[in-house]
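Troubleshooting entry. The earlier prediction with adenosine-5'-diphosphate gave an output that would not parse, so I re-checked the input for stray whitespace and re-submitted. Clean input:
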Amino acid sequence: MIQIENITKSFDDVPVLRGISLTVEKGEFVALIGRSGYGKSVLLRHVAGLLKPDSGRVLVDGQDLTSLRGRELEALRSRFGFVFQGGALFDSLSVFDNVAFPLREKTRKSEEEIATQVRAALVRVGLETSEDKLPAQISGGMVKRTALARALVMEPEFLFFDEPETGLDPLTAQGVLDLIHECHRNLKFTGIIISHQLPRVFDVVDRVAVLHNGQIRYFGPPDGLERSADEAVRQLVTGRA
Ligand SMILES: Nc1ncnc2c1ncn2[C@@H]1O[C@H](COP(=O)(O)OP(=O)(O)O)[C@@H](O)[C@H]1O
Ligand SMILES: [Mg+2]
């Protein structure tokens, strides 16, 4: 379970997060939506332990992430997986070696064990016949699938996505979202996804959080969004400014 408690964050005296509280239950998948530049990535980076808040805290299974340092922070973060914009693959490594990378870096598994796990992850994302290809030799959708496989191969309990479908055509973006949905159903990770794919992402998640002007203006099931009395929420969901 992730408990975000009253987080505030400013950059150069400009407030970005003005007191954010959210709870993501174990196994739950939450979408974080809002206009560009409103602090979605900043909020997710706090949850991932990459940024420290000015005030407030983030509890992960009761452990205060914001007060952990060094080895303790690393131990907690080893339970996290990330899929960020762009995919961020190593250009000179094959699909297989990209997915194997975290296993080789962070575990002491044998190459045989690693190969078994990498192939299982590649099957999960439908890339089992592309393991020898370089990132430049595969499509944008396949790059995202590889990034997803690389996150899944570590079997994270928590998985965070920052616009995983950015830069893809609508059909491919839908395919990536469907795949993430399927992975969540099968693996039951606790997840947060930032996405601009509205309303598509609503089919993938249990609850939606709307971030606007540094605050959460809606937090509830997707089907309650349209009934929100909040104008900012309605504008975002209907796409009318
Ligand atoms: N490390 C940083 N230093 C200074 N300003 C930052 C930093 N990270 C984000 N910001 C600012 O915080 C605001 C929110 O950014 P971001 O979370 O990336 O928005 P988005 O909702 O599009 O993901 C932006 O105005 C951005 O310029
Ligand atoms: Mg962002």
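This one parsed fine. Residues 146 and 226 are 35 Å apart (CA to CA).
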